[in-house]
Amino acid sequence: MKRLKLITSISLILTAISIVVATYNLVKLYSHEKENTMETVKECAENAILLEMMDRMEKSENVSQSFIRLNAFLETSQLKEGKVSNDRVRTSLASLLLFGLDYRNKKNVIDTLALDSIFKDQLAQHNMFPKISSIISVGTGIPYKSGLWKTQYSYNPGSKPTFDIYVSKMPGTVLTRLWGIIIPFISIILLFMFLSGYLVKTIRNLRTIEQMKDDFAHNMTHELKTPVAVAYSAADSMLRYYDHSDETRNRQFLKIIMQRLSFLSGMIENILSMSMERFRTMKLDLDRLEVKQIVEEVAGMIKLKADKPVTIDTDIPENLAVMADPLHFGNIMSNILDNAVRYSGDDVIINIKANNDSITIEDNGIGIEKNHLPYIFDKFYRVPSGDRYEVSGYGLGLFYVRQIIELLGWSIDVKSKPGDGTIFIIRFNCSEER
Q1: How many CB atoms within 10 Å of residue 11?
Q2: Tens digit of pLDDT for each residue in 271-282?
Q3: Which of 125, 188, 220, 334 has its CA 20 to 30 A from that of 305?
Q4: Are 37 and 151 in contact (CB under 8 A)?
C-alpha cells in the first residue's frame, strides 16, 4: 500500500507539472495567435485606408497625373527587379494617392465614417466581427476608451505611425484558430481529473478494506482465543488432575469442552456462510410464519443469555404472518436483537412493532454515527470504538441480515443517532396476512 501511494503521488505530481507546462505553452501560443490576428487587422486597416484614398482620388482633379506616375513606377520596378514588391507598391500607391489628393479642398479630407465602414467590411472578409472597429489619425487628439486591442499603421515603413487602429477584444476569434489544440488539451485535463479522482477513491477504498481486514483478523483472533483457552484449560485439568471417582467433575469439564468446540464450529460455519457464492445458490424454505410467535421466542432467548437486564416490549398483531424461511427469519431477529443488547448501556430497552407492511426494532443503545450508517451492512465492517475488543463479534451479523432480506425480496433501513439508540425497519414487500 505504501509503495502504491508513493507511485501514485509521484505520478500525480509529474502529471500536474506537465499540465502546468502545457498550460503555460498554450497561453504563449494564444499570445502569438493574438499577434497574428492583429497583423491581419493591420492589413485590413491598410486596405481600408488605401481604398478610401482611391475613392477620394476618383473625385480629385489630379487623378490623371497620379495614375500616370503609378503606371510608370510599376513598369520601372518590373523591368529592374523582375517583380514588384507588395510593400513597395503599397507604399508608392499611398504616396501617389496622397500626391493626387488636393488637401486644400475640404471635400477630400478623410471621411472617417466611410473609412470605418470599409475597415469593417475588410475585417468581415477575414471572418472577424468585432463590436468596435475604428481607424483614427494620430495627433487628432480624439480620446478613445481603453479595453480595446490596438495597433498602428504608417504610410512609409520605418516612419512615425499615421493611424491608430482599434478593435474590440476578439478572444473567440483567436481561440477558434486554436480549437485543434485546445479541445484535445481540455479533454486530456478532464480525463486526468476523472482518473485522478477515481484513483484517489480507489486508494481510499483500499485503505478501508485494509483496515477492515486488520480489524477482522484482530477480532477473529480475540473471538477464537477465548473458547480455545477455556477448552484448553478444561482438557488440561482433566489430564493433570483426572479423578476416576469424580464422575460429575469429569462430565462438567467435558461439557465445557464440547460447548467451546460447538461455539468454534458455529463461528466457522457463520464465516463460511458469508460466501457470496453460497448466497447466490442458497434456496430458502419458505413457509407461512406467525411473526409474533417467532419474535417472542427469539426475544426470550436473548434475555436468557444476556448478562444485564433486558426489557423487550412487543406490539405485534396475533394474526400477522409472512412468507419466509423459519430458520433465517429467526436468525435475522436474533442478530438485530443481539446487537441491540451488545451496543447498549447497563439497562436495555427494546421496542418491537409490526404491521402488515413492516417490522420495526428500536433500542436505547449507544447509537451509530451518521458517517458509519452506509457501511454497517458490509461484510466484516464494525463501527470503530476506543477499544476494539470492548464488544465481541467479527462484522458478519448485519451482512448476513441484509443478504437474507434481499433473498426474501424484502428491504431494510436503519436510523440512528449517537446517544439516542438505533431503529431498524424491515419492510415485507412479499408479506401477506392470513
Answers
A1: 12
A2: 655 554 456 566
A3: 220
A4: no
- For position 76, what pLDDT does the model report? 47
Whether the CB-CB separation of 396 and 379 falls below 8 Å is answered with yes
- For 62-209, strand residue ranges (E) read 133-137, 149-153, 163-167
Q: Please tell me the distance from the alpha carbon of residue 197 to that of residue 195, in angstroms, as a whole number.
A: 5
Fold of 180-273: Helix Hairpins (1.10.287)
Any bridge partners for residue 312, and if so which? Answer: 350
Find out whether 155 and 94 touch, Cβ atoms under 8 Å.
yes
Distance CA 418, CA 54 (A): 88
CA atoms within 13 A on the CB side of 205: 7
> 84 has which bridge partners?
none
Residue 160: how many other CB atoms lie within 10 Å: 10
DSSP element (H, E) containing 201: helix 179-240
Structure-model confidence comparison of residues 376 and 239, the more confident one: 376
Classified as helix, coil or strand, 377 is coil
Predicted pLDDT at 414: 93
What's the CA angle centered on 425, arms 407 and 344, to 5 degrees? 115
Q: What's the longest Cα–Cα distance across the chain?
A: 148
Burial tier of 51 (Cβ tally within 10 Å: 0-12, 13-18, 19+): middle
Fold topology of 280-433: Heat Shock Protein 90 (3.30.565)
Asked if residue 56 lies in contact with residue 46, where contact means CB atoms within 8 angstroms, the answer is no
User: Could you tell me which residues come within 8 angstroms of residue 355 by beta carbon, excluding any fewer than 6 positions away?
Assistant: 317, 320
Confidence at residue 268, expressed as pLDDT on a 0 to 100 scale: 67
Amino acid letter, residue 99: F
Report how far residue 302's alpha carbon sits from residue 314's, in angstroms, rounded to the nearest whole number. 14
Neighbours of 115 (CB within 10 A): 22
Taking the domains of the chain in order of start, what are their residue ranges? 2-60+101-177, 180-273, 280-433
* Helix 291-305 and helix 326-342, axial crossing angle in degrees, nearest 10: 40
Tell me the mean pLDDT in the region 204-222: 72
Cell of 285: 424454505
What would the grid cell of residue 245 be?
A: 471417582
